[in-house]
Specification:
A hairpin with a 6-residue loop joins strand 5 and strand 6. The strands form 4 sheets. A 3-stranded antiparallel beta sheet has the order 1-7-4, covered by helices on one side. It has a 3-stranded antiparallel beta sheet with strand order 9-8-10. A two-stranded antiparallel ribbon has the order 2-3. The chain is built from 38 helices and 10 strands. By secondary structure, the chain is mainly alpha-helical.
Length: 889
């Protein structure tokens, strides 16, 4: 390029040269511009090089240069000739934008009208739209040109251009009715268009001008087979001929629903469970441990000793025991080495500076220039030497304490600021006193007030570095009389800054009995643990306590009889009799778990047997067996989202923008059972915050409430909408639903809806099994699925695919029940835009309604079906409405 500019030679006619020139940096008054710029319309690759040029907000370099440097006629001719050569959208983008920038007037477009007409049938979409606009500006056209334009536009696949062609057709026929026959071919072409709206409009225009098409019946009837049955029938009724047969969805043969599941007996207790579900392994291990510890402890100790040797013991350093593995290790260690896993002792008094941050500053002073004591509300005394200290801000709560020790002072007595009492102190020993630092009774208590040794060590090490006599330092450290300083010994100031976590030393407040029990057994705080897991931890902790105290029962009451988690009433009574015969009272959490595993309803025969057993646990079980068990609590959920920094409820709709969607569990006990662990621990309303630390623990939850599965579902809700982050509810957690009992509501429906649309493996057989038992909350699933599609990242198309798979597997009737609740919540209301997914959803519903023979009007479908707007969505609504009611609109 530089050589061409220097020499002034005429650039060769070479397309790559033009493309390369267009990509060079801008050069003012480039001598190559007059020669190469006109060639951009012919050079291959020029359009691709210019594809990034933009009109907004201002025309970019080459658009502006071309419009400025080339004559308008040359530029317009160049654009049109480039359009006629064809090419893909990227190659033509620059020329379309240049033509738009030039904005030719009707007078300028008139000479090129034939070229614009030639572009209509096959040019790319953007070029065809541009050409259509130029043709429209040239109206009225010659009749032959107009027929050509209409024919070209109805042939195009873009619905917008085809609809414009039909509009021009209608205008032409109304203006000159005798020319109607010339437009039969474009009409027949529109019958085969892929857009339902275009096909419908073509039929409407055919019927509108039917009288003018009397001599062209054959051509119209030839096109009928391209139309849907309902549109073809309208034309056949007007022009004669055979109406097309409606292509009904293929009749399907659906498999039957599966048989009812068989409940297997629960396996025998074992210390080495096989690879079954975690909750089953947990129950078998606990049962085997308790039985072995009471029947033959020596043998069990030999069995577990080898395992204890291989245990790395990490659990011993944990402040809390939060999982079954930790408790299994603790139980094993206590059994093999009694007393090796004691309860935590009572809490000791906490000193002022426990867990405090501190710094130690030691500096030499010049004699006669000692700093004056600063006035302040507190006096702090240090080993016979004192200065008044103060907080940084007297008006603010105390945060930082200044403590100063000057080694050149002599022994003496200090005065407490509050009551002027003389305060004795241990000479040379560093102590901290102060009326805000601790209660007055602790003022003379060295065990409370003594400063930590590592702080004293730090100060004394620095004193030695500055030259203080080691004998004086040793006396100070030992709390003995301190010799006077030598003549050459420096004067030293020690300042210790503390930032304490609390304002005074104190004895911890007495905890409620149950909270103190949790602390002693290293259980986490109750509000930080999911309720069902908290309940399981109680079972483990009370076993450890009974093992230490020698009160372990001979058998666990709660070990299930069946893989559903249920416990046979007579088996429970048998175990109560075994415990009574051994003179041991069953454990409270074990009893609570056993009662919750009983089948629903009353069991009078077992109640009568239990009433004869002499134990408090048997009396409690007898009352439970004679009644109806645990009353079903109020269960449900609330959809919430983040607004600002607060979670708020959605209400009946959705705001325009929302994030961080969460399901808030609802669990309210309507009738307390009187068992504290059931009422206050297990039936506590779960938090909507999923605690990842305990996410894996929900593998131990199945089997806890086999007669109240909706409570289980409520507890799973915080782990549902995780979007792939953290542990989520999977098929393993809900696989027991067909085996367990109790009503199913919105919480279970939400879990099933999510897993269905997320294509979770195994969810479809589970839904079909619930359907076979007539227990599937299909309508609730449809309602929750609609909310998930509106409020989460889940999409309609995968939902339709999942429902199709469920229908094909034999759940077509359940799918229709879901759709009955889904459609009213998903379809657009007044003023809302109809989308392709809305049409697909209604079309799928129409197919399912046909498969199932569904009947009964759906108001929202009827409303859309009566809408006079001719859209594919409206057509599908009309098809569904006709199927449901047998009436057309």
């Amino acid at each position: 390029m530089a050589l061409l500019r220097e020499s002034g030679a005429v650039p060769p006619d070479h397309d790559p040269l033009v493309a390369a020139w267009l990509t060079e940096p801008i050069m003012v008054d480039d001598p190559l511009t007059p020669v190469l710029l006109p060639r951009v319309f012919d050079a291959d690759g020029a359009g691709r090089a210019l594809r990034a040029e933009r009109l907004d907000p201002l025309p970019t370099r080459w658009l502006a240069t071309t419009a400025r440097e080339l004559p308008r006629k040359q530029a317009l001719d160049g654009c049109v000739s480039r359009f006629l050569r064809g090419g893909d959208a990227q190659d033509l983008r620059f020329f379309v934008r240049l033509h738009t920038l030039l904005d030719p007037s009707p007078a300028e477009s008139a000479p090129r009208l034939r070229d614009y007409l030639r572009l209509l049938p096959s040019a790319s979409g953007t070029v065809a739209e541009l050409a259509t606009e130029q043709v429209r500006e040239a109206m009225p056209l010659d009749h032959a040109d107009l027929v050509e334009a209409v024919d070209a536009l109805t042939f195009r696949e873009e619905a917008k251009l085809a609809a414009l062609g039909l509009r021009w057709l209608d205008q032409a026929i109304r203006a000159a009715p005798d020319t109607a026959g010339d437009f039969v071919t474009p009409l027949a072409t529109a019958y085969a268009h892929k857009s339902f709206g275009v096909r419908n409009r073509a039929v409407e225009l055919t019927l509108k001008h039917a009288g003018l098409f009397a001599g062209h019946t054959e051509a119209i009837l030839d096109g009928i087979h391209h139309l849907p049955a309902d549109l073809g029938t309208k034309l056949a009724g007007r022009f004669g001929g055979t109406a097309p047969v409606e292509e009904l969805p293929e009749r399907k043969e659906f498999p039957p629903l599966p048989g009812l599941p068989e409940v297997r007996p629960f396996p025998e207790p074992s210390l080495s469970p096989d690879s079954q579900e975690m909750w089953v392994r947990q129950e078998r291990w606990l049962a085997a441990f308790v039985t072995g510890a009471t029947a033959d402890r020596a043998e069990l100790r030999r069995t577990l000793a080898a395992r204890l040797e291989q245990d790395p013991g990490h659990w011993r350093s944990d402040d809390e025991r939060t999982g079954p593995a930790q408790w299994h290790s603790a139980l094993t260690a206590e059994l093999v080495v009694p007393g090796s896993v004691p309860e935590l002792p009572p809490p000791l008094p906490e000193k002022f500076w426990d867990r405090a941050n501190h710094t130690v500053k030691v500096r030499a002073l010049t004699r006669g220039q000692e700093p004056e004591a600063e006035p302040g509300p507190e006096l702090y005394f240090i080993g016979g030497f004192y200065r008044s200290g103060r907080y940084l801000d007297d008006d603010a709560p105390p945060r930082v304490i200044f403590i100063t020790w000057t080694s050149d002072d002599g022994p003496g007595a200090a005065v407490a600021a509050e009551d002027d009492r003389p305060v004795p102190f241990s000479e040379g020993r560093i102590h901290l006193y102060g009326r805000q630092a601790m209660p007055p009774d602790a003022l003379y208590d060295d065990s409370v007030a003594a400063m930590p040794d590592h702080v004293i060590d730090s100060a004394c090490d620095r004193l030695a570095e500055l030259g203080v006599d080691p004998a004086r330092i040793a006396a100070m450290r030992a709390g003995e009389p301190v010799p006077p300083p030598g003549p050459d010994e420096p004067l030293v100031e020690v300042t210790i800054h503390f930032v304490p976590p609390r304002l005074r030393s104190f004895l911890p407040h007495a905890l409620p009995e149950h909270d103190e029990w949790r602390r002693r057994h290293q259980l986490p705080r109750s509000n930080s643990v999911p309720p069902l897991h908290d309940f399981q931890l109680h079972r483990c902790a009370e076993l450890a306590e009974a093992l230490r105290n020698g009160t372990l029962p001979p058998v666990l009451l709660a070990t299930p009889s069946w893989m559903s988690g249920h416990l046979e009433p007579d088996t429970l009574v048998d175990r109560l009799e075994t415990c009574a015969a051994a003179g041991v009272e069953p454990l409270l959490a074990d009893l609570a778990q056993a009662l919750l595993r009983l089948p629903r309803g009353s069991h009078p025969a077992a109640a009568e047997r239990a009433a004869k057993v002499d134990s408090a646990a048997a009396a409690s079980a007898a009352r439970w067996l004679a009644g109806d068990g645990l009353p079903d609590p109020e269960c449900g959920l609330v959809w919430r989202h983040m607004e600002g920094a607060t979670m708020v409820e959605f209400g009946d709709g959705e705001p325009e923008h929302f994030t961080s969607v969460r399901l808030k569990p609802v669990l309210r006990v309507t009738a307390p059972t009187g068992h504290r662990l059931i009422d206050e621990v297990l039936l506590r309303e779960p938090s909507d915050w999923a605690v990842d630390e305990y996410g894996s623990t929900f593998y131990t939850w199945p089997g806890t409430l086999p007669s109240h599965r909706e409570i289980m579902s409520v507890n799973y809700l915080p782990y549902l909408l995780r979007g792939g982050w953290g542990p989520t509810v999977g098929p393993a957690q809900i696989a027991c639903l067909p085996l367990t009992h109790g009503p199913l509501g919105e919480s279970t429906a939400a879990i099933l809806a999510y897993q269905l649309v997320a294509s979770t493996s195994g969810v479809i057989p589970l839904i079909l099994t619930l359907a076979a038992k007539d227990e599937l909350p299909a309508e609730a699933i449809g309602s929750q699925l609609a909310l998930m599609l509106r409020r989460t990242w889940l999409e309609v198309r995968p939902a339709i695919a999942a429902l199709t798979e469920l229908a094909d597997a034999g759940g077509q009737r359940e799918v229709w029940r879901m759709l009955g609740a889904l459609l009213p919540a998903m379809l657009p209301g007044a003023g809302q835009r109809v989308t392709v997914t809305h049409r697909q959803l209604v079309a799928f519903a129409a197919d399912v309604a046909l498969w199932t023979g569904a009947r009964g009007e759906i108001p929202v479908i009827a409303e859309h079906a009566r809408n006079r707007r001719t859209t594919h969505f409206g057509h599908e609504c009309e098809r569904l409405h006709t199927q449901l009611t047998g009436a057309t609109v």
